[in-house]
């Protein structure tokens, strides 16, 4: 593993494939081999979880009875032991009685020797016992842990057909049920009737592929490397399991005319297939990535229907597995599989190629970088860069200039990259981020957009999250906490990139401004560095003093390189005169060049034709679009290249797609970065994708790697806004976007925090642009939405300010006793109580109750809700007695009005339970918790976070009462639920593990407690590092346990 690159994705997430031969009852041998493999794999796991084959293999392929086993293991996700039991029972029930002793009738037609109805019934029983229905489709569209296909043979064409549990691009899959697929692959001629699926008829897949290894190879290529067909570099472990070498019995040509003329010609001997395959995969076999297991001796005389010879199959297989050669090979296979960390994604080929490219780049860098760097550390790094690497980046030497000055002795801590808008500063900084990650494995890299205070605040919160900084204190600010954390020597190496730091007022110290003075929040450390990109020389010098790198205009050679990288048809560059003329028109500006290339690509035009289009644009239109571009002396008395390329492309977009035009106009009214697609005007998904695709194809927008957000260059947005202004539509679009955001603002959902966090800057932007329209209901509604998100995000002072503004507007718009106004009052009271402003919170809450009672009546649901909110305020401000008194009032009302399963009822009960626990009323808390637990299990289920939260609460009560066994039972159940719901590494899971360890410790089970607390520390150390506050928090109880004072 190269330092800075990380392990190869092949080692941890490469493809693991399993091929299963056909062979009737001898399929038991395949299962016994697989059982030995899985037993050893599970015995070496540190946890007690027993994994199944579907947890390791990405694709199962089988034929005949091997196909039946593939369905059991892959589609039905059965364990090996239950599969062996089901398989042996199925073989016995199917082959115990013949219905015809002769495989042909008097007319010479082949007839079935065994009862096909019995086979179908046996398969249906297996499917039902596994928890599925026989009528369930093989491919039901639901996610599965692995992919499964089986081979069958078309009776009409004698071609192998694959029946799949998943879709394959550009290929139609038969809609077979699980039962039909199992029957089709195992319906061997002479033994069973053919199987019909729709209008097609199938017989045993073994006629075309008794060893399906080549079918598996082709199928995997169809899924993971459709174009290149280069499967080998993607395969981590390919396992092929046979059913033993059968005896070679001669056939009677007269009795089996059909077999001799047709089927024998088609049948493929498993081991001859293996020899062909091994010739091609010999290097992979030597590299311990391909394994073939097949019992060589002892199964020759076991006929495929001889179910009574189970003991013979077992003895021969065990003898094979205990041979020293096979022990070594099986051990190598297990070592390979045990390193598998996760399933292989569909785009894994791209992942491998990117890793190889990084490795090559790293090797080059290593030759020029000092190997005895005293600043290297082994600590895991953090990473937050919201953009994919630009594969078309053209080296400008700037990255190397900055890189050479990073992390060396006597170097500056801050650098500024200064240049005109559209000249490529962001792309340079982006390449710097990726190269830094490759060069310094221990370096945390964070990207912060400095376009405005709100975007920067959001970015700081994300950085705090990635660094594991707790924001529990209501008065703490993310910027201050990040500064303190990064300034510590123990933090290690880091790089901050502030992109688009153009506004000097954001950085200057200003006593009258609450949002100024950002320079004071910059961390300082001899292991850290800060890079700014800016259009302002004044900002560059203020932030970086003399360490400013100015980006000069591209020369013609590099400009041609950018154009070539951006063009699909490189042959248009053969027109050298038009190429040079175009680049001069665009002043060699990268942004304009990319936009021009996008137009040429989309419309398949020549460079000469595009130059004519540019020259045809009217100067007055260009002048209008160029307003506020702010870069003095940029164009040297020629026409604005961004504006002219924008206008040329925009006119084409207007003709192509109205929705794309609407989206562009909408984006001109919000922030230019991190724009949520969900905020756009609603449209059918196909139309939406088409519109975004068009904007992207013209380089007007860029998709982020979440595929749900867009970025727009500042100059593109400015040109769009100027165009709207020129046609008199800007105000109309701003109001349209205001109403869209008010209607489509993301709901508060902790699991979807990133969505509504990203929406806040856009909401504040449109609120600011339409401030004169603040009497509109939509304006007020959006303001409230932002305030409520601030509450959830812990930004209480900002929420209070917005709620206060909203209250003033609402009282003017609706009146002081209108429900809308009371809703604003409730939010404002909540912001007061969380900040500890008890008197204000209680006074305002009481006013809400009085007004609500006047409007709706004292017994109304609205009045009950107002009372509960007051009880919540009381509990937050520490008055638990009054909170308890109000809870007792509202709970009966909620039970009557909204029912026991309502979230409001459950919240009120939880509030009351907390007051009981605070007062030591454990008996009351216990009784109420048990009732609440019962209701939650029935209404939302045992795995719902509210249910498991009550379980943990109950356990804490029992711990206080020294009812340790009962506490242990609740914690064990809650822990299993948390692992299923949150995953083993979630803080809720770790907290529950800590509580369970405490329960064991109190019962004297020190070894179990120490082991569990050690596991907690290991998980947090891997996730956050050994110095992280979360790791320290879980380490303290272990130190007390192992080193008692």
Automatic annotation (TrEMBL):
UniProt motif (GXGXXG) ranges: 22-27
Swiss-Prot/TrEMBL keywords: Hydrolase, Lipid degradation, Lipid metabolism
Pfam families: NB-ARC, Patatin, TPR_10, TPR_12
SMART domains: TPR
A biological process from GO: glycerolipid metabolic process
Motif DGA/G location, chain numbering: 204-206
Name of this protein: Pc12g00510 protein
Annotated organism of origin: Penicillium rubens (strain ATCC 28089 / DSM 1075 / NRRL 1951 / Wisconsin 54-1255)
């Amino acid at each position: 593993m190269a330092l800075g690159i990380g392990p190869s994705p092949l080692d941890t997430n490469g493809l693991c494939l399993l091929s299963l031969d056909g062979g009737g009852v001898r399929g038991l041998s395949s299962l016994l081999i697989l059982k030995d493999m899985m037993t050893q794999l599970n015995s070496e796991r540190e946890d007690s979880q027993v994994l199944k084959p579907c947890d390791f293999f990405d694709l199962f392929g089988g034929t005949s009875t091997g196909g039946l086993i593939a369905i059991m293991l892959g589609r039905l996700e059965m364990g090996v032991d239950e599969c062996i039991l089901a398989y042996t029972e199925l073989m016995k029930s199917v082959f115990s009685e013949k219905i015809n002793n002769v495989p042909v009738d008097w007319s010479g037609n082949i007839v079935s020797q065994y009862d096909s109805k019995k086979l179908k019934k046996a398969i249906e029983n297996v499917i039902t016992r596994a928890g599925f229905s026989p009528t369930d489709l093989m491919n039901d569209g639901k996610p599965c842990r692995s992919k499964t296909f089986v081979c069958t043979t078309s009776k009409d064409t004698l071609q192998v057909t694959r029946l799949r549990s998943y879709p394959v691009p550009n290929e139609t899959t038969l809609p077979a049920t699980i039962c039909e697929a199992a029957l089709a692959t195992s319906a061997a001629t002479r033994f069973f009737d053919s199987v019909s699926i729709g209008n097609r008829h199938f017989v045993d897949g073994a006629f075309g592929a008794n060893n399906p290894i080549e079918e598996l190879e082709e199928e995997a290529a169809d899924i993971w490397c459709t174009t290149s067909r280069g499967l080998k570099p993607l395969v981590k472990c390919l396992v092929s399991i046979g059913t033993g070498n059968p005896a070679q019995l001669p056939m009677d040509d007269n009795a089996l005319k059909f077999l001799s003329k047709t089927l024998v010609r088609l049948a493929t001997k498993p081991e001859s297939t293996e020899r062909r395959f091994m010739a091609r995969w010999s290097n992979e076999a030597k590299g311990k990535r391909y394994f073939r297991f097949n019992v060589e001796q002892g199964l020759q005389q076991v006929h495929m229907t001889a179910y009574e010879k189970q003991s013979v199959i077992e003895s021969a297989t065990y003898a094979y597995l205990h041979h020293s050669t096979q022990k070594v090979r099986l051990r190598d296979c297990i070592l390979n599989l045990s390193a598998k960390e996760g399933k292989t994604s569909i785009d894994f080929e791209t992942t491998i190629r990117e890793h190889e490219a990084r490795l090559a780049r790293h090797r080059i860098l290593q030759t020029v970088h000092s190997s005895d760097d005293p600043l290297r550390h082994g600590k895991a790094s953090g990473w937050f860069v919201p953009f994919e690497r630009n594969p078309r980046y053209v080296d400008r030497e700037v990255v190397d200039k900055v890189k050479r000055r990073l992390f060396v002795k006597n170097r500056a801590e801050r650098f500024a990259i200064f240049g005109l808008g559209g000249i490529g500063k962001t792309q340079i900084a982006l390449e710097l981020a990726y190269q830094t990650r490759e060069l310094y494995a221990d370096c945390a890299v964070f990207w912060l957009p400095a376009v405005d205070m709100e975007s920067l605040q959001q970015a700081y919160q994300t950085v705090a999250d990635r660094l594991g900084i707790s924001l529990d204190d209501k008065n703490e600010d993310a910027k201050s906490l990040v500064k303190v954390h990064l300034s510590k020597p123990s933090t290690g190496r880091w790089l901050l990139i502030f992109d688009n730091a153009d506004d000097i007022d954001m950085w200057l110290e200003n006593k009258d401004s609450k949002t100024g003075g950002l320079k004071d929040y910059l961390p300082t450390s001899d292991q850290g560095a800060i890079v700014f990109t800016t259009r302002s020389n004044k900002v560059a010098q203020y932030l970086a003093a003399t360490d400013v790198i100015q980006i000069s205009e591209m020369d013609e050679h590099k400009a041609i390189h950018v154009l070539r990288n951006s063009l699909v048809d490189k042959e248009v560059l053969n027109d050298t005169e038009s190429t040079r003329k175009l680049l001069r028109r665009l002043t060699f500006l990268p942004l304009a060049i990319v936009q021009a290339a996008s137009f040429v690509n989309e419309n398949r035009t020549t460079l000469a034709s595009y130059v004519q289009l540019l020259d045809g644009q009217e100067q007055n239109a260009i002048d209008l679009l160029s307003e506020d571009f702010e870069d003095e002396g940029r164009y040297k008395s020629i026409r604005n290249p961004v504006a002219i390329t924008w206008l040329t492309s925009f006119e084409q977009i207007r003709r192509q797609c109205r929705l794309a035009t609407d989206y562009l106009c909408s984006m001109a009214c919000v922030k230019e970065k991190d724009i949520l697609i969900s905020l756009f005007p609603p449209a059918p998904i196909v139309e939406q994708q088409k519109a975004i695709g068009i904007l992207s194809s013209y380089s007007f927008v860029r998709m982020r790697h979440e595929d749900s957000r867009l970025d727009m260059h500042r100059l593109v947005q400015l040109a769009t806004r100027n165009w709207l202004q020129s046609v008199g539509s800007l105000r109309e679009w701003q109001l349209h976007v205001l109403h869209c955001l008010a209607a489509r603002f993301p709901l508060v959902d902790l699991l979807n925090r990133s969505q509504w966090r990203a929406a806040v800057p856009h909401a504040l932007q449109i609120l600011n642009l339409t401030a004169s329209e603040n009497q509109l209901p939509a304006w007020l509604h959006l303001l409230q939405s932002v305030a409520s998100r601030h509450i959830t995000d812990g930004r209480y002072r900002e929420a209070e300010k917005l709620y206060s503004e909203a209250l003033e507007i609402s009282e003017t718009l609706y009146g002081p006793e209108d429900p809308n106004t009371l809703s604003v009052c409730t939010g404002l009271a909540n912001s007061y109580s969380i900040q500890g402003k008890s008197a204000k919170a209680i006074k305002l809450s009481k006013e809400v109750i009085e007004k609500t009672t006047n409007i709706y009546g004292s017994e109304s649901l609205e009045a009950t809700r107002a009372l509960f909110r007051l009880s919540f305020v009381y509990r937050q401000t520490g008055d638990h007695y009054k909170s308890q008194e109000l809870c007792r009032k509202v709970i009966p009302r909620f039970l009557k009005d909204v029912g026991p399963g309502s979230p409001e009822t459950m919240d009120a009960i939880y509030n009351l339970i907390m007051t009981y626990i605070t007062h030591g009323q454990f008996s009351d808390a216990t009784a109420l918790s048990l009732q609440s637990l019962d209701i939650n299990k029935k209404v939302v289920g045992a795995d719902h976070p509210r249910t498991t939260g009550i379980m943990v609460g109950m356990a804490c009560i029992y711990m206080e009462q020294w009812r340790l066994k009962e506490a242990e039972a609740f914690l064990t159940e809650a822990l299993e639920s948390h692992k299923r719901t949150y995953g083993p590494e979630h803080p809720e899971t770790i907290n529950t593990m800590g509580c369970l360890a405490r329960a064991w410790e109190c019962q004297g089970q020190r070894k179990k407690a120490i082991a569990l607390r050690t596991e907690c520390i290991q998980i947090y150390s891997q996730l956050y590092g050994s110095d992280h506050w979360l790791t320290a928090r879980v380490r303290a109880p272990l130190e007390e346990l192992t080193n008692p004072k």
